[in-house]
Amino acid sequence: MATKTAKGGTNDVTEAEFKKREAVWPLVLFYIHVYVLGVTGVYIACTAASWSTIFFTALLTLLGMLGVTVGVHRLWAHRTFTATAPLRLFLMLCQTMAGQGSIYSRVQAHRLHHAKFKQDEDPYYSKLGFLHAQLHGNLLRYSPQQERLLQEIDMSDIESDPIVMFQKRFYVIMYIVLNVLLPMNTPFQYFGQTFGVAMFVGFWLRSLIVLSVGDLVNSAHFVWGTHKDFKPTDSNSIFFITKTFWPQFHYLLPKDYQSGEFGNYGKDTGTTMIRVFAALNMASDLRTIPSVAVRQGMTVAVETKRPIVECVEEQVALAQKRMPEDHFLNREKFM
Question: Would you identify the family this protein belongs to, as annotated (predicted)?
Answer without folding.
Answer: Belongs to the fatty acid desaturase type 1 family.
